[in-house]
Specification:
It is a single chain. The protein has about 325 residues and is α+β, with helices and mostly antiparallel strands. The protein has two domains: about 120 residues, 2-Layer Sandwich (Dihydrodipicolinate Reductase, domain 2); about 130 residues, no CATH class. The protein is about 35% helix and about 20% strand. The chain has eight helices and eleven strands. β10 and β11 form a beta hairpin. α1 crosses α4 and α2 packs antiparallel against α3. It is globular, with a radius of gyration of 21 Å. The chain starts with 12 loop residues before the first helix and ends in a 12-residue tail after the last strand. The structure holds iron/sulfur cluster. Iron/sulfur cluster (SF4) binds next to α5.
């Protein structure tokens, strides 16, 4: 009897579509473990009867209902950003086509609110598609695995992001931020303090020290993919992260600006080389509704092989 070779597993468009639709649904409606745990720690910290605790209790209720009903956590869908690591040869064009179709379908179902507007005419496109949305970031790697992380980055918190070109006077603090770690710290704290309740605190803060203007802001936002409880492998930055978070939570801004001890859930800092002539500190501010989820896919079938951000202690893929 002749041996019949098993058919190699193949991807069908519907497998990729189903995988991505599930990713969008969960990202929009079900906050990741680390953010939930941090918000819970904030609730334990705030005084009974305080407006800070009232705000966190309301947020907690919102989170529970959204997850239960697969409904958007916030009315602001946010900027839809896919971060993709893929093996060499993986068809990213097919992925992009599928992701766009999924975004339109998720909007029609109601997983995503219609929230993308033509910047010139002001017209809502109705399906969250248009020039520059969704956004895709690709990086090839040698693993035989596709890693897709989706972030829905709110507009209100995006508005309070900031970029500092050091040295810089910070009149509100009565100080000047110089080109050193103390200056970096002042710039980060200035951005957090200036946001006050705007940006829907407690915030989650991504920072890049260095780079150019564009790369600095991009790297700062990528830090928001890190989990709250991770430890920066760079000791200096690790200390700076902890110090900034500690001081920020003593500023008295609190949840939604109502006062209290929970102003930030964490501060994550990366550095990139800079030119001698410039020294940027770029700050990306994410709100409490920090919607980011991720999946790993089998590159041959595009079936989901694992969910990311299910526990509070995951790490980023190499290369971030
Ligand atoms: S900043 Fe965040 S929580 Fe506030 S409205 Fe925007 S998406 Fe919603």
């Amino acid at each position: 009897m002749s041996e019949i070779a098993a058919s190699p597993a193949t991807s069908t468009p519907s497998t990729l579509h189903a995988s991505l639709l599930d990713l969008v649904r969960r990202t929009s409606s079900d906050l990741p473990a680390d953010i939930r745990i941090s918000l819970q720690k904030g609730r334990e910290k705030e005084d009974r009867g305080s407006r800070a605790l009232l705000a966190l209790d309301t947020i907690d209720c919102n989170i529970g209902i959204a997850a239960e009903e697969s409904a958007p956590i916030c009315q602001d869908t946010g900027m839809i950003k896919f971060y993709v690591h893929h093996p060499v040869g993986y068809d990213t064009l097919a992925l992009e086509d599928a992701a766009k179709a999924v975004v339109a379908e998720a909007t029609a179902i109601g997983y995503l609110r219609q929230n993308s507007v033509d910047s010139i005419t002001g017209k809502n496109t109705g399906n969250n598609l248009g020039p520059g949305t969704p956004l895709f970031h690709y990086q090839a790697w040698r693993k035989n695995q596709v890693d897709i992380r989706l972030m829905l980055k709110g507009g209100g918190c995006e508005n309070v992001g900031a970029q500092y070109s050091l040295p810089m006077d910070l009149p509100e603090l009565g100080k000047k931020a110089g080109r050193d770690l103390e200056g970096v710290k002042l710039a980060i704290l200035h951005a957090i303090w200036k946001a006050q309740g705007k940006g829907c605190a407690p915030g989650y803060i991504g920072v890049c020290v260095g780079g150019d203007r564009a790369s600095g802001l991009e790297v700062a936002k990528e830090q928001l993919l890190r989990v709250v409880g991770d430890t920066n492998p760079d000791d200096t930055l690790s200390v700076l992260e902890q110090e900034c978070a500690r001081i920020a939570n003593g500023l008295g801004v609190g949840p939604m600006g109502f006062g209290g001890d929970t102003t930030v859930l964490g501060v994550k800092i990366a550095s990139r080389n800079r030119l001698p002539a410039s020294f940027f500190v770029s700050v990306s501010y994410a709100c409490w509704a920090h919607r980011r989820r991720g999946v790993t896919l089998d590159p041959a079938t595009n079936a989901i092989t694992g969910w990311l951000y299910e526990t509070a202690d995951e790490t980023l893929p190499e290369g971030h």
